[in-house]
């Protein structure tokens, strides 16, 4: 009898520990999924910040302009290669491209349909004249009628 009771208690302890591990696994999996989503969001944000057009736009907002003729410094011997000229405040480059025009086949004129004000439609979609619109029920119930 003692062996049976100890076996049942051991099985109960084993099930309890397995259930605790399952809950911990679920919690850690949810945390890993949240971290993975955060990593993807940060990677997208970083790629947007590294975008050359976004970088040029931020530089332009800060008042920076590109130099007309850059000079390069040789790290080996410290000499300057090229004729450096200071940047001029009014000079700038176009950062964003002009939007392209759509071809006429992709940009058709809208079709406008005018509906006469004196006619209406019933719930099935068939047109009715003003005299054929059903009256509201007398027992106090409301009924939807589309004009």
Protein described:
The structure is a single chain. The protein is mainly alpha-helical and 147 residues long. The chain has a domain at 1-64. The protein is 40% helix and 5% strand. It is built from 2 helices and 4 strands. A two-stranded antiparallel ribbon has the order 1-2. Strand 3 and strand 4 (127-128) form a beta hairpin. The longest helix is centred in the first third of the chain and has 49 residues, at 2-50. It starts with a helix and ends in a 19-residue tail after the last strand. Mean pLDDT is 79; it is low at 140-147.
Tell me briefly what this model is.
This protein is mainly alpha-helical and about 150 residues long. About 40% of the residues lie in helices and about 5% in strands.
Key descriptive features of the protein:
two-stranded antiparallel ribbon; flat; two-stranded antiparallel sheet; mainly alpha; 147 residues; 2 helices; disordered C terminus; single chain
Helix-strand string = HHEEEE
- Poorly predicted runs of 5 or more residues: 140-147
Distance between the termini: 83 Å
Largest sheet: 2 strands, antiparallel
What would you report as the Rg, rounded to the nearest angstrom? 37 Å
| Helix content estimate | 40-55%
The total strand number stands at 4
Shape: flat
Instruction: Give the structural class.
Output: mainly alpha
The number of distinct helices, counting runs of at least 4 residues, comes to 2
